[in-house]
Model the fold of this input.
Amino acid sequence: MSIHRRDRGEVSAQVVLVIPVIILLMMLAIQAGLYFHASSIAGAAAAEGAAAASVARIPSEVAARRGQRAAENLVIEAGGHTTSAALVAVNTETVTITVEALVPRIIPFFPSSVRRTVIEPRERFTTELSR
Done:
């Protein structure tokens, strides 16, 4: 009796068990990449919005609109999507901006969005005489 007759069907059973595991691992890697991409977009958009809103000598309302617009434009340029408008809080000392980006999901248990917040000090304008 040859070795091949005793192993009949064993390789097929192993392939049937291993292939779904390999596909799941590939999908996990893709999903992790999508999550980190959305996270990068949200972080960059929040930083861009905070930088735009921190400009000296503009009123807080104007700074907030400017920061929100800058953040949302960066998300659009990067090909991402947000769950809602960027949240901007401006006071005399700091600018706080929060961006929540959607994460495309191919695996159900991963989060559907990622939120990033940046706090940046407002610029101060100092005249030459007051230095």
